[in-house]
Amino acid sequence: MPAMLTDVFRGHPIHLPHSHHQPDFTSLRELPDSYSWTPKDDILFAAAAAPSPPTAVDETIPFIDLDHPDAANQIGHACRTWGAFQIANHGVPLRLLQDIEFLTGSLFGLPVQRKLKAARSETGVSGYGVARIASFFNKQMWSEGFTITGSPLNDFRKLWPQLHLNYCDIVEEYEERMKKLASKLMWLALSSLGVSEEDVQWASLNSDSNWAQAALQLNHYPVCPQPDRAMGLAAHTDSTLLTILYQNNTAGLQVFRDDLGWVTVPPVPGSLVVNVGDLFHILSNGLFKSVLHRARVNQTRARLSVAFLWGPQSDIKISPVPKLVSPVDTPLYRSVTWTEYLQTKATHFNKALSMIRNHKEE
Ligand SMILES: C=C1C[C@]23C[C@H]1CC[C@H]2[C@@]12CCC[C@@](C)(C(=O)O1)[C@H]2[C@@H]3C(=O)O
Ligand SMILES: O=C(O)CCC(=O)C(=O)O
Ligand SMILES: [Fe+2]
Question: Which residues form a coiled coil (predicted)?
Answer without folding.
Answer: none
